[in-house]
Write a structure and sequence with these properties.
CATH class: Alpha Beta
CATH architecture: 3-Layer(aba) Sandwich
CATH superfamily: Ribokinase
Largest sheet: 9 strands, mixed
CATH topology: UDP-N-acetylmuramoyl-L-alanine:D-glutamate ligase
Number of helices: 10
Distance between the termini: 17 Å
Number of domains: 1
Structural class: alpha/beta
Strand order of the largest sheet: 5-4-1-8-9-10-11-12-13
Shape: globular
Radius of gyration: 18 Å
Order of helices and strands: EEEHEHEEEHEHEHEHHEEEHHH
Helix content: 25-40%
Number of strands: 13
Strand content: 15-25%
């Protein structure tokens, strides 16, 4: 693991979490939390001492100030964290059903995170980066879409490894725009998705293994597939820097408080493991499942994230090796 070897790219926003489960119109009060999948990933990587850079954009407003301060407090390097004087910060109101599953209502019309600018991260910075993580929400609107695609192209030219998470939010996309997600898959080395997301991207084979294999034909050598409380799967081709594999791992039983950010905790652990040189996909999935499980036991995606030792010990205690 090298200094500043990771770059995280994408949105930072304010999650408004409900005090009670139920339909959004019936919720009377909310808790403010820093959020956005890439921001959650960056904060958890910082908790793992991975020292990530983070390219994002928030408004030059009270919510933006709150987010910048929160990122700094979580140990995220803010060199590429921008505040936009001409745009507001994105808000996401979350609703929970009785099983704590979530739905989102976004206030994201021309907000700051949609206004990432091409060239904000110079190529000289990319030349020192080993892994670039990109969240798919950043591709849902211009000019951020073009800026992120430009960065991905330059990252590949600089021999960075690219990790892509489509993070499918249908309410943010027009039907004729989603081909850009397939473009990003084609530029990725590692893809994290759910089975439903793969289907939305056009990989509609009957089995999860076949969907992973089809996605890898477009570019990635490895797919990490999350299956909610049932666990996760790793699929790797002959082009991967480890043995070809299809391995399924069960999740961990915990008392679920809030699943917001659990998938991002999974991502952060996989990225950290890759950056640490872990070369066993099954082991990576075990650690990532542990990270996701622990995340679900607290409210909010950035609240007191565990360190790497805690993740590894939880995985070991619950029947897997570090």
């Amino acid at each position: 693991m090298s200094e500043r070897s990771l770059l995280v790219v994408g949105e930072t926003l304010v999650d408004m979490l409900p005090e009670t489960p139920g339909e959004l119109h019936g919720v009377e009060s909310f808790q403010r939390r820093a959020g956005g999948a890439p921001a959650n990933v960056a904060a958890r990587l910082a908790a793992f001492d991975a020292d990530p850079l983070f390219w994002t954009r928030v408004g030059d407003d009270a919510f933006g100030d709150f987010l910048v301060e929160t990122l700094a407090d979580r140990g995220v390097a803010t060199r590429f964290v921008e505040q936009d004087a001409d745009a507001k910060t994105t808000l996401a109101f979350v609703a929970h059903d009785e099983e704590r599953d979530r739905s989102f209502t976004f206030y994201r019309d021309r907000t700051a995170d949609t206004r990432l600018e091409t060239g904000a991260v110079p190529t000289t910075a990319l030349e020192a980066i080993e892994w670039v993580y990109v969240g798919g929400v950043a591709l849902a609107a211009e000019p951020a879409r073009s800026a992120v695609l430009d960065l991905l192209e330059r990252a590949r030219e600089a021999d960075c490894s690219v990790y892509f998470d489509p993070n499918w939010r249908p309410e943010l996309w027009d039907d004729d725009e989603t081909d850009v997600l397939r473009d990003a898959v084609g530029m990725a080395d590692v893809l994290k998705a759910t089975g439903d997301e793969l289907a939305e991207l056009g990989y509609q084979q009957d089995s999860l293994e076949a969907r992973c294999e089809a996605a890898c034909r477009d570019g990635p050598h490895t797919v990490f597939l999350t299956r909610g409380g049932e666990g996760a799967t790793a699929f790797a081709t002959e082009d991967a820097p480890w043995e070809p594999t299809f391995v399924e791992r069960s999740g961990f039983d915990v008392d679920v408080v809030d699943t917001t950010g659990a998938g991002d905790a999974f991502v952060a652990a996989t990225v950290a493991a890759l950056d640490r040189g872990v070369a066993d996909p099954g082991r990576i999935v075990d650690l990532a499942n542990a990270s996701a499980a622990l995340s679900a036991t607290t409210t909010g995606a950035m609240e007191a994230p565990p360190d790497w030792t805690t993740i590894a010990e939880f995985a070991a205690t619950n029947g897997t090796e570090e």
